[in-house]
Amino acid sequence: MVSEHTSSSHAQVLVASNRGPITYTLGEDGTLDSKRGGGGLVSGLSAVDDKLWVCAALGDGDREAVRRGVGEEGVRMLDIDAEVHADAYNGIANSVLWFVHHLLYQTPVEPVFDTEFRRQWASFETYNRAFAEALAEEAGPGAAVLVQDYHLALVPGMLRELRPDLRIGHFSHTPWAPVDYFRLLPDDIAEQLLRGILGADRAAFLTRRWADAFIGCCTEILGGTGRTRIGVHGLGADADFLRRRSQEADVDERMAALREQVGEDRKTIVRVDRTELSKNIVRGLHAYRTLLDTHPEWRERVVHIAFAYPSRQDLAVYRDYTAAVQTLATEINAAYSTESWTPVVLHVKDDFARSLAAYRLADVALVNPIRDGMNLVAKEVPVVSDHGCALVLSREAGAYEELGEDAIVVNPYDVTGTAEALHEALTMSGDERSGRTKRLAEAATALPPQQWFLDQLEALRQG
Question: Which one of 145, 249, 338, 451 is separated from 121 by 20 to 30 angstroms, measured CA to CA?
């Protein structure tokens, strides 16, 4: 069931995650093209050269690459049965664990933990066991193993049984649910998840709030965290990369195109998100419409640049949410636009250069998630902003702990409150905006990705 790309026997630093640093696409002519991934984890792990990254084959291209023995040094890709992976990834990780930690259930009708859930849970166990066995096989004596995120919550406990000599860490990139919500899960499953993570020597989180919630669940359900140490590492923005990349020619081209869409002498409210349920894009659009109603002086004077990049479209609830975002943006434009002004500029095709262009142009950044482990957009915008940017930030984003003092903070469910926050941000003086942006950028880059990873590795090794 499990195969490998390239293996480095007896590695001393190992990382495990569902998605690896490289993906393969299978062409119609049978050729394989590879693409390097981005994001904070890839950037952070670049701090260590001599490591082995264990990940899952995510699609036909990845699986074909494994079967052909194609790969790159330092990456082992696991060819887990496609149906098992689908059950584990979509059925459990994204449709249960993500929903629990982000408080997304409509509890009168969901969740329903029935025989189908139990069948998918068995696949989740199989998927986690494949990682644990691969890590046990590859790790050198006393090696450090850093397991990433909710997809692999059972791995530390499984790996501990196979290799008690290892130093094992687990890092949660999501929030952690408060105990009353976590107990929506069946009792045996809740206990299994906690014991899985407590198989690690060290369990770490993005903020103290999420760490405390985990401790609360362990205390209530298990009586404590045992010998597992708990840590907090707030992933920051990669300032050097962002500043360099945001000044490249393709970003300038997209800035020119966005300026033309916005029009002369207009302010911009920018959001950049995946169409993920927790990102709260629909309420953000409602807040913008409320702003235009309650402060009509902003009509024709402001444009909402909304980038909503489709996410998890193999799940119906996400397809429906993406459609709802597009419908609402269309309705706002139909109701308020004039011959020379389009209130909402919506883009749904992922384009990193265009996102950076919007960051640079933004007068106001709207980051209003229902709940978010961190939210790097809130940290990235102040770093690359050309003229200073006011940040409207949900108190439910992990970034609030570090940025709340210089942001305009909102309750993400309060549409009228968010509309007033947008008005306050739009009317903020240039001097105040510049001062806040500078302080936000300093806080946002306090723990850049490479240092974030090295700190965890050092803490794990210290014992």
Answer: 145
Find out whether 370 and 278 touch, Cβ atoms under 8 Å: yes
- For residue 179, the SS3 value is helix
| 3-state SS, one letter per residue, for 304-362 | EEEEEECCCCCCHHHHHHHHHHHHHHHHHHHHHCECCECCEEEECCCCHHHHHHHHHHC
Cβ-count burial of 27 within 10 angstroms (0-12 exposed, 13-18 middle, 19+ buried)?
Answer: exposed
Whose tokens are 């990834």? That residue is 89
Can you tell me the distance from the alpha carbon of 163 to that of 165, in angstroms, rounded to the nearest whole number? 5
Task: Report the amino acid identity of residue 412.
Answer: P
Locate 337 and state its tokens: 């636009």
Tracing tokens 């790969």 back to the chain, one arrives at: 71
Q: Say yes or no to pLDDT of 210 above 60.
A: yes
Q: Are 143 and 116 in contact (CB under 8 A)?
A: no
Q: Write out the two tokens for 423.
A: 């008005």
Residues in the chain: 463
Token pair belonging to 354: 């265009």
From CA 97, how far away is CA 154, in angstroms rounded?
12
Q: Pairing between strand 267-274 and 302-309?
A: parallel
Residues 50 and 112 sit within 8 Å (Cβ to Cβ)? no
Residue pair 56/78 in contact by the 8 Å Cβ criterion: yes
* Cβ atoms of residues 4 and 138 within 8 Å: no
DSSP H helices in 28-112: 40-45, 60-68, 82-86, 98-101
Question: What is the rounded distance in angstroms from the CA atom of residue 236 to the CA atom of residue 259?
Answer: 29
pTM: 0.94
Question: Cα separations (Å) of 62 from 32, 51, 231, 365?
Answer: 9, 20, 34, 36
CA distance 147 to 132: 10
Highest mean pLDDT among 59-68, 147-156, 321-330: 147-156
* pLDDT per position as a tens digit, 270-325: 999 998 999 999 999 999 999 999 999 999 999 999 998 887 777 788 888 899 99
Q: Is 170 helix (H, G, I), strand (E, B) or coil?
A: strand
Q: Which helix (H) or strand (E) holds 15?
A: strand 11-16
Gap between the Cα atoms of 384 and 266, Å rounded: 20
Query: How far, in Å, are 56, 111, 310, 393, 424 from residue 418 at the CA level?
Result: 40, 30, 24, 9, 10
